[in-house]
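re: ur question from yesterday

yeah so i grabbed the chain u mentioned. its 534 aa long if i counted rite. heres the sequnce exactly as i have it in my notes:
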Amino acid sequence: MSDLARLKLQRRVDQLLAPWSGPASPGMTIGIVRGGEVILHASAGMADIELGVPIGPQTTFRIASVSKQFTCAMALLLVEEGRLGVDDDIRLYLPELAAFDQRISVDQLMHNISGLRDMLQIMRMGGIDLSFPVLPEDLMDGIARQRTLNFPAGARYLYSNTNFLLLGRIVERVTGERLRDLLERRIFRPLGMNMTRMVERTTELVPGLATGYLPAPEGGQMRAQHGFPVHGEGALVSSVLDLALWERSFSGGLAGRLPLQEQTHFNSGPLCGYARGLAIAEVRGLRTVGHGGLWPGFRTEFLRIPERDEAIIVITNTGEANPYQVGQAVLNCLVEGAPEVFPVRAMPPKEELARYVGRFVDFEVPATVDIALSASGALTVNTFGMEVGVVSEPDGRLAAAHSARDWLMLLDPDGNTLGVQHDAEITAIYRRIGYGAPAPRGLVGTYVSVEMAAVWAIVEEEAGLVVRVSGPVGRGGPWQVEGIAGDVFRIYQPGILARSWMDAQVVRDVDGRVNGLYVHGGRVKRLVLQREEA
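ran it thru and got these C-alpha cells back, copy pasting raw so excuse formatting
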C-alpha cells in the first residue's frame, strides 16, 4: 500500500470514528487486516463513560453472532475426527426435541436452513424481552415445545439462533465437555487469542470488557440491559486484535483447513448464501465472507475479502452505530481505483425512489413492510420493526443493505405491486395498502399457543386494542394492535433493541366467527393460536 493510499484510508477511518469521539460517548473500534497483519487499528469513544475509560487496543466487546462461526469450527473439528457427522440427525444427540415430519441434520443447523424457530422470538412471543433474566433451561424448553417448523428442512434460509444454541449443545454432548473449555483449549489458545472467551452470563466478570450502551429516552446514554444467557449462538467476548488472529488462520491455518466457507444447495436446487456460520455475498464484483453481531449495547461486523487477502473488523459498544455500513464504507475506500472492482452503482433519483414509499403487505404469509425516504434521499425498508438502508444492484433492483442479501425488490410500473426476491430464489408479491384500516372485527378474546405455552388476551382498553400475554416464564404487554387490511393486523412489541412488530391474520370458521390467529414474527412463521371459548 502506497503512503498516499494509507493516508486516505486513515482519514476515512477518522471520519467514520468522528461521531463517537466525545468524552461522554460510547464508541467504536475499527481494524483493517491485509496479508494477515493489522495495517490500521483506530478507536474513538469510551469503553466506560462513568469511569472515563477510553476504548483502546485491549478493550473487549461482546461480539454476539460473530460467535457462530467459532461454534461451527468446533463442530467441524469433531467431524474431522470422525466423532460427529454433518448428515447426522440432530435427535441422535438431542432426543428431547420433537420428532418433526422430517429429520434435521447437523449441517442444516450450520447453514441456517433447518426451519427451526428462533428461541429468542419464542420467548418474546411468550411475553418476555431480552432484558428479562431467564435460565438456559427456559430456552431449551421453548425449543422442545415446538411441534411445527417455519418450513421443511432444507427448503429455505431463515436466520435462527436456535440452530447454533443446539449445535453448541451437540458439541458438548459428543465430547462431555463444556463448549467454553473446548473453544479455549482447541481454538483460542493455539491461535494466541488471549482476549477471547465464551461468557454465558452477564454477571461474569470479564477483563477489559466495555459497557454496552443504548440511547436513553430522556437523552444521553443508559446501560443496555440483557438478561438472557447465551451459548453457541453468541456468547463470545473478543477484540479487534484477536479477531485479526482468527482472520489470519483462514490463510493456511485452522479456519482455512476447515470447510467453514462451504455453501450448500436448497432442496429446490439454488445455492444458499449462508455457509457455516458465515454469510457469503458479492459486493462490487468481489466475493465477501463475514458475519454481523447484535446484542443490547453491542454491534459487530467481521468482513473478509478473500481474493484481496483483506479483512475489516468493526465493533461498537452502542446500539446507535451501524458497523455494517461502516464496514462497507471502509471496503469502498480499500478498493478505490482497483481495475477488477465494479464502481459503486448510483441510487435512482429521489423522485424515482419516492414511488416506493408506503406500506405493502404480502397476504400469503402475511408479512408487511414500511418503506420510507429521508429528506436527504436515503431509502429504508422496515420489516418487523428492524429498519435497514437500501442499495442499488446492477440489475436495477434495490437490495436491503445487510450481509444476507435476501431482500431484492422491484416496484411495478403501476406503483402498487412490489416484487421481493428472498432466499432460494423465491419471489413474494407485496401489495400497496393505505394507512388507518380498522382492526379485524371480532378480534377481542383469549387465544392459546401450545408451542409457546402462552395465553394471549386481546382486550379493548382506553388506548385501543392491546395484547396482554401470560407465558411460561413471565408476563408481557400491553402490545398495541393496529389494523392493516381486512383480517390482517399488526402487533407492536416494545423491546430493549427496538419497537418490533408481528404480523397476524384472523382465522374464521364457516360462519365468519374468529376461531384463531396466524402470527408471523419474522423468525417465527405461521404460529397458530387457538381461540378459547368464553
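noticed a couple things. The mean pLDDT is 95. also The longest strand covers residues 475-485.
anyway ttyl
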